[in-house]
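As described in the Methods, two query proteins were run sequentially through the folding procedure within a single session, without resetting any intermediate state between them. The first query and its resulting C-alpha cells are shown here.
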Amino acid sequence: MRYYLHGDEKEDDPGIYYCRACDDFVPRKHFYEDCTEKNDFERFQRTLKIWKQIKKSGTQYTRPINAKNIFE
C-alpha cells in the first residue's frame, strides 16, 4: 500500500497531488487557492517526520525513494 505525504504526486496521474489537510487528490493550484492548510511546507515536513517514524517501526505501507513532491 502506498503512503502519500502532503504534496506527493499521485502515481500514474501526473499533475495530481495528495493534500493531507483535505485527504484528497487535487490539482497543483489547490494548494495555492483552495486548501485550508495555511502552511503547506510545514504540513509536508510534519508528514515526512511521521512517515519516517512509521517506516522505522515496520509497516505494510511503502513510499518510493524518488517520490515527486511539490514541496521538496
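Immediately afterward, the second query was submitted; its sequence and C-alpha cells are:
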Amino acid sequence: MIFEEFKHLKQEHDKNNPFSNFYFYETGESFYVEPAFYTQLMGFKEQHKERFPEILKRMEEVVKSNKKVVFTANYETPLTEAEGYIYLEITDITDPLKIYAEDKSRGSDYGD
C-alpha cells in the first residue's frame, strides 16, 4: 500500500510483516505503520485537517527519539512483530497534542 504521507521516505517490504508498511529515515531510524493505525490516522486527518501536520510532525519526533517504532491500532494485539521496537497507538501521538477523536456514535434509541 502507498501511504501518501510517508512517500518521501525509503520503504522496504518486510516478509515477516507483510501487511504493515516499513519506512526508514536517511539517518537510520525506522518504523512500521499498520493498516488499522493508518485508518485511524486518516480519521484524524478528516476531523482535524488544520492540525494534521502537527500529528505527522509528532510521529516523526517520536521515531527520531526512539529509533524503532511500530504504529499499531492496539499494542496488546499488534499485527506487526518486530523485536526491539516500541509499540504506539494513535492516542499516544494525539493526546499529548490535545487533539482528540470525536466519538459521534451514541447508544440506541430503543429501550427494553
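The mean pLDDT is 93. We note this only descriptively and draw no conclusion about the first query from it.
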